[in-house]
Each structure stands twice: as C-alpha cells, then as structure tokens.
C-alpha cells in the first residue's frame, strides 16, 4: 500500500477542524487508496480539547488514518509534512483595531512560515484558511524563503462555491450546470465574484440571467456578505462549508481540475490581469500535475476592472500594513 501522506492542520481544536479533520481522515482529500497521517497543531490551552477530538477520530476507526500526532510546537508538528492547512488564526475581538489584528496574526504566520521553511517536506503545499487569509498567506510565504512562493495559496473556494449556488438557484438549474465561476481579489467583502465568464449549461451566465440589477443588488452583496449572514443566522461563523472548501481547494491542487474547467484559488500574483506581482490574490486557476496555472486571456470589461482593482487595492493596503509592522 501507499506510504501515508503527512497532513498538518492548525487550529485543530476549532470549529472548522471539527469538520475538516474527519473529511481528511475519511478520504475526501486524497481519495480512497491513500493513507494519511494527521499532524495537529494547537495553542497550549487548547490541547486538552484537541485530545478529545483525537479520541473521536479514534472512534471512527477510519481505515485510511495511519497516525495522529498533536502538539503546540510548530517545529515538531510540521516535521516532514507534505500538505499544510493553516486554519488557526487570531479572531478579531471587541475593541481590536485592524492593526492589532494584523499584528496578532503576524506573530502566528511568521512563526509558522519559518517552521514550515525549516521542517516541512520538500514538496510541501501550504493552504491558508485563517483570516485575513490572503495576507496571512503572504506573511507565511515571505517567512519561508526556501519554499517556492507558488506553494502558498489562500482560500477563496468557499466564496466560489457560494457564488455557484447563488447562480444555480437564480437560473433554476442544478449546481453542476454552473461552471467557470471566478472570485477575484481578496477573501473579504471587497472580493469580486465574476459572472461575465461564468457558464450555465455552457451558456454565458450574465447573458442568460440578463439582470444587471440582480447582479449588483443581490448576487454580489449576497456572496460578499455571506460570512456575516451565516454568523447572524447560526450564531457562529461558517464551519462545515469552510472545511468543505478547504478540502476541495487542496484536493484539486493535488489531484487536478477536470479538463475544461477552472476553480478560484488565491495564489501569488505573477502580474496577470494587472494584479501587482507578489500579493496573494484570487484568480481563475486550472491544476495539472500538482501545479496550478492562472487562466490567461479572459476579457475584463470596465465594470469588472473597477471591482478587481478595488479588491486588489485592499490587498496592497494590507501588504503595506504588514510591511510597516516588519512582518514581511
Ligand atoms: P475557531 O476559533 O473555532 O478555531 C480556531 C482555532 O485556532 C482555535 O482552537 C485556536 O486555539 C487555534 N489557534 C489559535 N492560534 C493558533 C496557533 N498559533 N497555532 C495553532 N492553532 C491556533 O475558528 P474557526 O471557526 O475554526 O475559524 C478558523 C479561521 O478560519 C478563522 O480565522 C476564520 O476567520 C477563518 N475562516 C476563513 C474562511 C475562508 O473562507 N477563508 C471562512 C471561514 C472562517 O471564517
């Protein structure tokens, strides 16, 4: 049988991981023939709760789960890992300014970037879910100079999936009919879900729906503010859907995207579509052989250009803020 793939997950006692770990261990990430070893990182006060989660993993008797190790030292937990899913982050609490939030997360992602740099396997792929995801990914990437930059991604797949379902419901079709969705920019309320390249049953979604008032007044704000709507309804932030998106992003990054399709991934910009090099921004991507490529040659109209530029401007602001804090 195959040697186990070592998968590191941080924030392992938190709510996203309460779904995520079970999905990984059951084979949703790497398929039904690939054993996995979980390496779970938490802060010291959460280790006891994490032990309880490990008891539940044990109690599932997952055939593919070869081993589980837990700890509060990134250097040990990340040793030899092939995949790293960085979910744990410092949430914004009452009275916290944006700078405080970036600084608190900076401390986490500088340390975890260095630990990955020094201890992860040579083929490591790193996906950041913890918010502010794009900028946390930038911090980790810049603190891991020996790992190729393209191995650092941030999660905008949840936004992508949210947008797919909004379009499917509007068009009255199954979600599988909706393809070529793109989230551009930052995982934040400035993100731009682009309908102009989306297809519904092979037809252009914007033309088929033909309702710009719905696009601007309903579709965009619903997708952009979905996180807040979930909190309002559920009393806590999206967890199972965030875990699902984290699995799907990493699964596609490892196993590839279907021929003729693309997905949204936040990746280090190479300057495509006028997004400045170096920031980690969401693009339409295909994956083959474990390497992603940004889809090239899409026409961007004036409406989309303005929306992409606004979200990119926010990413540049965040980059400048963490630069002046000395985090990158
Ligand atoms: P929870 O607060 O339930 O769990 C976070 C866990 O991370 C806690 O158990 C905490 O102890 C741990 N942690 C904190 N610092 C750590 C460190 N230095 N090393 C290891 N673990 C550490 O949050 P949860 O709901 O699971 O969300 C986790 C993160 O995902 C948050 O930052 C959240 O904002 C972000 N999200 C990102 C989404 C995305 O689409 N990119 C969507 C969902 C979610 O909002």
**Protein structure class:** alpha/beta
Name the helicity range.
40-55%
> What gross morphology would you assign?
globular
Bound molecules: ligand NAX
Distance between the termini: 42 Å
Strand order of the largest sheet: 3-2-1-4-5-6
The radius of gyration is 19 Å
What's the structural blueprint in terms of helices and strands?
Elements: E1 5-10, H1 15-26, E2 36-41, H2 47-60, E3 65-71, H3 74-77, E4 83-86, H4 98-119, E5 125-128, H5 133-142, E6 152-154, H6 157-171, E7 178-179, E8 182-184, E9 192-194, E10 199-200, E11 203-204, H7 205-209, H8 212-224, H9 226-234, H10 240-255, E12 263-268, E13 280-288, E14 291-294, H11 302-324
The structure holds ligand NAX.
Residues 10-11, 13-16, 41-43, 46, 87-91, 108, 129-131, 133, 155, 158, 187, 227, 237-239, 242 line the site of ligand NAX.
Main features:
binds ligand NAX, alpha/beta, Malate_DH_type2, 11 helices, NAD(P)-bd_dom_sf, 328 residues, 19% strand, six-stranded parallel β-sheet, tricarboxylic acid cycle, three-stranded antiparallel β-sheet
What do these coordinates show?
The protein starts with a strand and ends with a helix. The protein contains eleven helices and 14 strands. The model has no long low-confidence stretch (mean pLDDT 97). It has 328 residues and is of the alpha/beta class. The chain has a six-stranded parallel β-sheet, with helices on both faces. It is globular, with a radius of gyration of 19 Å. The structure holds ligand NAX. Residues 10-11, 13-16, 41-43, 46, 87-91, 108, 129-131, 133, 155, 158, 187, 227, 237-239, 242 line the site of ligand NAX. Substrate binds at residues 92, 98, 131, 162. Residues 156-322 form the Lactate/malate dehydrogenase C-terminal domain. Pfam families: Ldh_1_C, Ldh_1_N. Keywords: NAD, Oxidoreductase, Tricarboxylic acid cycle.
